[in-house]
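User: I'm putting together a teaching handout on how multi-component assemblies are represented. Below are the sequence lines for each component of a complex, exactly as they appear in our records. Could you produce the 3D structure of the whole assembly as structure tokens, so the students can see both representations side by side? Please keep the chain order the same as the input.
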Amino acid sequence: MPIQYYLFLSMALFCIGIAGTLMRRNAIIIFMCIELMLNAVNLLLVAFSKMWHDASAQIVVFFIMVVAAAEVAVGLAIIVLMYRKVHSVDINILNRLKH
Amino acid sequence: MDIQQILFIVLSAIAIGCALGVVFSRNPINSVLFLILTFFAISGHYILLNAQFLAVVNIIVYAGAIMVLFLFVIMLMNLNSDTEPQKNWLVQLAGAISGGILFLVLLSALVSATKTLPVMEQGSNDLGLIKNLGKTLFRDYVLPFEISSVLFLSAMIGAIVIGKKEDKFEDVH
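Assistant: Of course. Below is the structure of the complete assembly, with chains in the same order as your input.
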């Protein structure tokens, strides 16, 4: 497999994640799109690790997974707190800093 | 066309289709299930790339732990397609167009830039095994590994503090 195919696949996944982040208003869906972008980057790192025959890239992927797990725990706690306050996960309600 | 190319095309189609399903499905639970399918497809790609350990970790951590957490939260809030907030179509169109334009820009930049890259090595297949990764992790990356434990501890404490009921705080003061 040429490396280009993996580049294009992970670029497509990354751009789908960005489009989803811009299109949706549900905070949980936006969070899931961010996870999708992280996974696209992981896939690209593994492909480059195979290309240069270097295990360091796979260790970096491992650390990205660690950070993503911690981020999800804190982020979902924030979303649950927000739901408890305003009874919605719509991010358009959270515009009080604007006024 | 050998078996590896067929597998690559099938897994890529599953990954991109399910990623589009995450973005476009109205029901948040369907979005979570599509995202789990995407993660399985990406794990298949890891196996094709000889990263067996990462494939297993991806399934256990992402599809197993993180997505179950998402499902729990969505079911706790009782979200479904009726309560789903929708942006108006103009904003949705703008989001889709900007994502597509970013894809086109990256594509056109990388098509010309990656012509000189070397082809992937087909040599030894034991790079992604847990033995090699463990040696690299504990020889070169011990300090980040230990720091990540502090990160996990702080994330755990932070999630508990954020998730607590607020009236308990007011009793203290």
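A couple of points students might notice: Chain A touches chain B through 68 residues (CB under 8 Å). Chain A has a mean pLDDT of 89.
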